[in-house]
From TrEMBL:
Residues 1-122 form the VOC domain. It comes from Parerythrobacter jejuensis. CDD domains: VOC_like. PANTHER family: BLL2941 PROTEIN (PTHR35006:SF1), GLYOXALASE FAMILY PROTEIN (AFU_ORTHOLOGUE AFUA_5G14830) (PTHR35006). This is VOC family protein. Pfam families: Glyoxalase.
Amino acid sequence: MIGYVTLGTNDLAKNAPFYDAIAKAMGVGRMMEFDSFIAWGDMNGAPGVALTQPFDGKAATVGNGTMVALQVDGPEMVKTIYDTAMANGGSDEGEPGPRGDDGFYAGYFRDPDGNKLNVFCMTQASG
């Protein structure tokens, strides 16, 4: 079971507001905070997302093929989170909409550091 996902940053203070805004739109806030690490979510809830300066002191880089998927309750919330990301320095990787024919509805974006995320919901039962 995943507890949280960590993404690297080269400027925690500059990029934390991006995640503050998304977390607020999802109804959560910061659950852990240190000088070089912040985690957002609910300690007793779904897995969270963390942003950290790399422990080894080297520059943070974006993982090719790495993406964090944030699950929400419906298409309206997908749009809300996507729009929040765009309004807070994110960049578009695919506007909200249906993907395929299995009820998967998602929007894709990158944070200010270039880490790729998506926000998604299921609009019909699978199977």
